[in-house]
Amino acid sequence: MQDIEILRKSKLSKETIELFEQPSIASQLPIVFNEDGQWDEFSGECNGCHTPIPQEALRGTIDRSWPNVATVTAAGFCRPCLLVTPFKFRVHSDMRMTFPRNGVWHEATARPDGFWQQLLQFLKKAFLKNE
Ligand SMILES: [Zn+2]
């Protein structure tokens, strides 16, 4: 059975199912900011078994409505765990990363406690253009 069929039969929210109907995040990379830099690669870990989620199973949207920030909303499906791990963060043209927490966007560099750690693992590498 296809992943999407498994997910449609599960009790996931409509929003999560819609994320899986989007292309993979990998296929939408890199996120390029004019002159300043670009974000090339992301990898996400399953919340259950902490193994990397296959790129094809990590799907969602990259909102480029603003010139200097991109909002990534994604869901990763781990087939062995039958578990969905949600991801939401913003990447900025100055190479900052921010995450929503209690309705406010926080910088990823603040403190690598457990919460940030999990999200930070989603970022694999980022480098400036012309470097
Ligand atoms: Zn897993």
General description of the model:
- The protein is α+β, with helices and mostly antiparallel strands and about 130 residues long.
- It is built from three helices and eight strands; from the N terminus they run H-H-E-E-E-E-E-E-E-H-E.
- The protein has a five-stranded antiparallel beta sheet with strand order 3-4-5-6-7, with helices on one face. The protein has a three-stranded antiparallel beta sheet with strand order 1-2-8, with no helix packed on it.
- A hairpin with a 2-residue loop joins strand 6 and strand 7.
- The longest helix has 7 residues.
- The C terminus is likely disordered.
- The site of zinc ion has 8 residues, from loops.
Compile the SSE list and pairings.
Layout: H1 3-9, H2 14-20, E1 31-33, E2 37-42, E3 58-66, E4 69-78, E5 83-92, E6 97-101, E7 104-107, H3 114-120, E8 123-127
Antiparallel strand pairs: 1-2, 2-8, 3-4, 4-5, 5-6, 6-7
The chain binds zinc ion.
Keyphrases for this structure?
single chain; 131 residues; alpha+beta; three-stranded antiparallel sheet; disordered C terminus; binds zinc ion
* Sheet of most strands: 5 strands, antiparallel
Helical fraction equals 10-25%
Number of helices: 3
Which oligomeric form is depicted? single chain
**N→C terminal distance:** 44 Å
